[in-house]
Amino acid sequence: MLLLRSTLFQILFYSVTLVLMLLFAPVMLLPRRWGWWVVPTWSRILQLLMRVFAGIKVEVRGRENLPDGGFIAAMKHQSAWETVALIPLFTSPTFILKRELRWIPIFGWYTAKFKQIPINRGKRSEALAAMMQAAREAIAEKRQILIFPEGTRRPAGAEPKYKYGIAHLYRELKCPVVPIAHNAGLYWPRSSWTVYPGTVIVEILPPIEAGLAPEDFYERMVTSVETASDRLIEEARQTARPSPVLHQVDSLRQARQG
């Protein structure tokens, strides 16, 4: 039954996304701020599919920690879930994403239309300069920059590998950074076809104000996200039906200690 539900959800996830992108295509003719509503609408529809067909519910804590205006949201990256489900939390977000996503037909057009920030990982210095300029413009427009500091999805319980680029971004933009933790990797693991029922808990942590030394900021950000994410994993362990992924979490932690 779990495999059947997961298969149905995965098929619906991609097919509904394609249908919505085609249906909403006329927004390409509108100014960005008038057409943005289609993106959180897409997110909410997919979250409804997650709840109905995959049994994934969501609990968000700490909304009061989101500042007004422009800031950086530094998010834990365990799953495909957070790339979709966190969007409605923000008023005008822009992801920092791989340039290759711009090349995907239709989807790439949307990333360009809504001024998502592409980065060319093959040309490090040029990519950093271009990203920084786009990020400055986003903050000046009072937008929220969404970034996964680990760069790629990491399994729940795996050793974190945060990249230092976010410290450069923090130093240059001189704006608050909001750390965001969650335990989505327990329910929609990376590179997994199977999706497990349960409640994803998102915790929006107190913002780190501008002005710290980059090294101090980096240490504080990593500690905040990792401590909260580990706590949310342990909280999920106490539920009536713990995720089977917790066995993998324990194995990864043992490997880190051994």
TrEMBL record:
Highest taxon in the source lineage: Bacteria
Pathway: Lipid metabolism
Domain Phospholipid/glycerol acyltransferase: residue ranges: 71-185
Transferase listed as a keyword: yes
GO molecular function terms listed in the Swiss-Prot or TrEMBL record: acyltransferase activity
Keywords: Acyltransferase, Membrane, Transferase, Transmembrane, Transmembrane helix
Annotated stretches, region: Disordered: 239-258
Keyword Transmembrane helix set for record: yes
Membrane-spanning segments: 7-28
Protein name: 1-acyl-sn-glycerol-3-phosphate acyltransferase
Lineage, highest ranks first: Bacteria, Pseudomonadati, Pseudomonadota, Alphaproteobacteria, Hyphomicrobiales
